[in-house]
């Protein structure tokens, strides 16, 4: 399959290459329309548009398609797609101007899809998202749970009393408590299942079965469904491999599609800037960074002052040592900077890991150790607690200042727990 | 009462938090259901016709599909029955040898825990049905019928032996009761109901599944190597073509390219938290000599510079954003769905997390949830601060409404919504203070 062809390119081959590439793409993307739709889209045929809107929606939504999302009307999906593309920086205005009801614009949609495909490994990412998990998975680090799509039923509420907020906060606290209790039970059960099935797995490095695997043995019907999912995924994986082998011809074709479009007008004259609401994500971040910078400045200045006071007492070896230290710190900080600049955080493994119960204490073997992860989590916990404390302290100060402006009041803080 | 916009935003944030919690809870409950069921006695998945009493009790989730047993299954069953007969014979022999026979049980040490199947009915049924039955018996689709390569009867002997230990004091589980109910109609089936605890180690994954799973792993590995090993000509050419395409899209575009992209914001958020983490490390470390002190000083100054850089970059991005007039874009752009860390590997690869005891696992899980909760709390705190503090600053501190708001805000912001402070009005001070 991987043998490189050395013979002269056969025109028949060339003619077949594009449809096969598109066919592979269609087989690997979830819910993709037939290859014929792609071709029709180039010529802007109306039947192509709805299918492509749906595909874009499916591809862009952060959550795998479930009943609720899939049943959104085409119009709603189209609006959402436009919004999502724009927030990723999609440059073409023509897409925005397409009617929401989704009957036009096959060619523009095709360009949008190609743009997404060009920007990153889209088929692979989608496959990873929908990968059939065979093990008991535990994510190693937690990202803030993304809200994803705005709930369709969100009503514009009127004014609320602050007590409503307090009530919601209390409810939230209760939910977390329940969650934690349930989680403990689940771990106990997992531990049992893992130890009872020790020695069963054909893969020696795993050793025991996971809940999914045990479940498929208990329930053969479910097992058949799982098998089917697995086989579908295998088919999509093979299609993805084929796509990667053949995609060049697709890009050559997309060039022609782009040329077929009329060039867009230059960007309009200066548009009045609508300031982003202060509580937007970027606003929050800006404030955070400012606060951080301030803290660092204070700490650094204090230390610098302390240092200046004692610097006289250092000998001649001081100069050489200083240079060495400066270089070391510079390297350190550069590495730190790299850790957020680069896209792949390969230093620390992310994402869900399969739980494996083992007595083995093989150092350097594959896989993370629970102890290491626990340690890392503790560090993170401490950091977050500190941040929370600091923010609360800030609020206390601010409120005290505001209240202090009003004489004649005594503020009795709650008893410290 | 809070103003409408503010209310809407805050309620939306809290609702989001509640929803994400609820979603986790839902998933957790599903997992719990499955796990609990696995640890109970396993019901057979199919209900053959002549046993109506069993109908409603069998696994209500999976539709019972009646399919005739394959010849293979029948053969296996025959083997099994013969093995059982032998087991009974040997067991009788053993029981004659003495009660104190120690039989190694499969998982847990004590035989008394193997109480899931009731011994007396099982023994009677075992002896009663010597001949292999042609009627589809209950256990035929138990895939744990040992494959031919397993020393099945030996293991079954062990299992049976474990049952020996219990006497009249056997705890009858529901399965046992059911078994007794259907004794008159009982076909010859595996007498002991299956529990994971006793017989978990006998399980073997079906062949088709194993094949599919290993092919799956193989394909992922191939895909992964294709990602990283981009030296092949075809891949390099494709990469160039893609870059050119993107550039062409950009130049032919009608909208400015630089946007406050979610990826950039994500990166800066990560920067902020990494800087903060590092700062904490430096501040809590205890320098032992002047070299360490100096190093710490340099690090802090360096961190300060980096923070400044990030802030400037963020401000640049924000000022470059040209918002389209409302109506052109859908309301409420979807919020960034940041994958874990913002830079998750696009291609899945098998990653293991090894643990050695239930305690360890529980600690890990609890910590993970705690970190997620704290993360959420910090985010909510920031949002609340951003909304409530300006409100309090703006309003004239006249009278009770402002005081009530202030007190409630204090509770929310400073005490996590848990404790209230008390505000006392000092009348005497008012009278004494100059007008």
Automatic annotation (TrEMBL), chain A:
One of its GO terms (biological process) is positive regulation of smoothened signaling pathway. InterPro entries: TEDC1, TEDC1_dom. GO terms for cellular component: centriole; cilium. Residues 89-259 form the Tubulin epsilon and delta complex protein domain. This is Tubulin epsilon and delta complex 1. It comes from Capra hircus (Goat).
From TrEMBL, chain B:
Residues 46-72, 100-146 are annotated as: Disordered. Residues 105-124 have a biased composition (Low complexity). One of its GO terms (cellular component) is centriole. It holds the Pfam family DUF4693. It comes from the Eukaryota. GO terms for biological process: positive regulation of smoothened signaling pathway. This is Tubulin epsilon and delta complex 2. The lineage of its organism: Eukaryota, Metazoa, Chordata, Craniata, Vertebrata.
């Amino acid at each position: 399959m991987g043998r490189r062809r050395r013979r002269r390119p056969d025109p028949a081959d060339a003619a077949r290459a594009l449809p096969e590439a598109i066919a592979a793409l269609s087989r690997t993307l979830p819910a993709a329309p037939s290859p014929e739709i792609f071709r029709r889209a180039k010529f802007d045929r109306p039947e192509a548009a709805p299918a492509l809107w749906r595909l874009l929606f499916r591809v862009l939504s952060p959550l795998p398609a479930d009943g609720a999302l899939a049943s959104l009307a085409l119009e709603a999906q189209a609006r959402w797609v436009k919004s999502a593309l724009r927030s990723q920086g999609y440059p073409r205005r023509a897409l925005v101007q397409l009617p929401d009801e989704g009957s036009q614009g096959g060619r523009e949609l095709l360009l949008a899809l190609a743009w997404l495909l060009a920007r990153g490994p889209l088929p692979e990412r989608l496959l990873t998202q929908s990968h059939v998990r065979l093990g008991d998975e535990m994510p190693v680090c937690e990202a803030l749970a993304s809200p994803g799509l705005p709930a369709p039923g969100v009503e514009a509420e009127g004014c609320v009393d602050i007590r409503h907020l307090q009530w919601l906060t209390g409810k939230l606290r209760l939910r977390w408590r329940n969650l934690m209790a349930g989680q403990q039970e689940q771990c106990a059960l997992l531990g049992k299942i893992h130890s009872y099935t020790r020695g069963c797995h054909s893969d020696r490095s795993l050793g025991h079965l996971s809940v999914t695997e045990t479940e498929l043995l208990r329930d053969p019907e479910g097992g058949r469904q799982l098998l089917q999912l697995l086989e579908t995924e295998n088919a999509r994986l093979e299609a993805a491999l084929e796509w990667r082998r053949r995609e060049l011809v697709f890009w050559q074709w997309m060039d022609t599609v782009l040329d077929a479009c009329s060039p867009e007008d230059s960007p309009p004259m200066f548009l009045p800037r609508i300031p982003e609401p202060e509580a937007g994500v970027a606003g929050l971040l800006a404030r955070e960074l400012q606060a951080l910078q301030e803290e660092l400045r204070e700490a650094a200045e204090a230390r610098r002052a302390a240092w200046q006071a004692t610097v006289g007492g250092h000998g001649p070896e001081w100069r050489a040592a200083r240079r060495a230290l400066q270089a070391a710190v510079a390297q350190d900080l550069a590495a730190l900077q790299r850790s957020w600049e680069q896209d792949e955080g390969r230093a620390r493994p992310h994402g869900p890991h399969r739980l494996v119960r083992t007595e083995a204490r093989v150092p350097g073997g594959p896989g993370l150790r629970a102890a290491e992860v626990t340690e890392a989590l503790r560090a993170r916990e401490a950091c977050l607690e500190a941040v929370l404390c600091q923010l609360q302290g800030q609020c206390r100060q601010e409120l005290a200042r505001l209240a202090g402006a009003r004489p004649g009041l005594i503020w009795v803080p709650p008893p410290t727990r | 009462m809070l103003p409408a916009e503010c209310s809407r935003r805050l309620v939306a944030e809290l609702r989001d938090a509640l929803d994400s919690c609820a979603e986790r809870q839902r998933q957790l409950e599903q997992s719990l259901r499955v796990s609990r069921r696995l640890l109970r006695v396993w019901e057979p998945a199919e209900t053959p016709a002549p046993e109506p009493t069993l109908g409603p009790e069998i696994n209500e989730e999976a539709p019972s599909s009646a399919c005739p047993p394959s010849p293979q299954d029948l053969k296996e069953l025959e083997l099994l029955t013969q093995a059982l007969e032998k087991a009974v014979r040997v067991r009788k022999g053993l029981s004659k040898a003495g009660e104190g026979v120690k039989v190694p049980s499969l998982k847990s040490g004590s035989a008394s825990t193997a109480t899931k199947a009731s011994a007396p009915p099982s023994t009677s049924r075992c002896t009663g049905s010597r001949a292999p039955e042609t009627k589809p018996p209950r256990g035929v689709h138990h895939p744990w019928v040992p494959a031919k390569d397993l020393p099945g009867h030996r293991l079954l002997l062990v299992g049976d032996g474990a049952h020996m230990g219990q006497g009249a004091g056997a705890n009858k589980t529901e399965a046992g009761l059911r078994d007794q109910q259907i004794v008159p109609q009982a076909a010859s089936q595996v007498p002991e109901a299956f529990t994971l605890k006793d017989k978990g180690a006998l399980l073997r994954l079906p062949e088709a599944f194993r094949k599919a799973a290993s092919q799956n792993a193989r394909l992922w590995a191939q895909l992964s190597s294709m990602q990283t090993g981009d030296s092949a000509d075809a891949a390099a050419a494709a990469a160039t073509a893609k870059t050119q395409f993107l550039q062409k899209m950009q130049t032919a575009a009608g909208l400015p390219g630089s946007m406050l992209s979610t990826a950039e914001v994500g990166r800066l958020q990560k920067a902020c938290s990494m800087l903060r983490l590092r700062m904490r490390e430096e501040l809590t470390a205890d320098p032992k000599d002047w070299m360490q002190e100096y190093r710490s000083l340099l690090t802090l100054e360096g961190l300060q510079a980096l923070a400044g850089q990030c802030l400037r970059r963020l401000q640049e991005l924000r000022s470059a954003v040209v918002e389209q007039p409302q109506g052109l874009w859908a309301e409420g752009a979807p919020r960034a769905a940041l994958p874990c860390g913002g830079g998750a590997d696009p291609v899945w690869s098998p990653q293991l997390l090894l643990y050695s005891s239930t305690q360890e696992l529980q600690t890990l899980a609890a910590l993970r949830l705690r970190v997620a909760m704290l993360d959420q709390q910090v985010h909510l705190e920031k949002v609340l601060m951003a909304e409530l503090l300006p409100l309090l600053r703006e309003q004239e501190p006249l009278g009770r409404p402002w005081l009530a708001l202030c007190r409630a805000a204090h509770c929310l912001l400073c005490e996590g919504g848990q404790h209230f402070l008390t505000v006392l009005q000092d009348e005497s001070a008012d009278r004494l203070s100059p007008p």
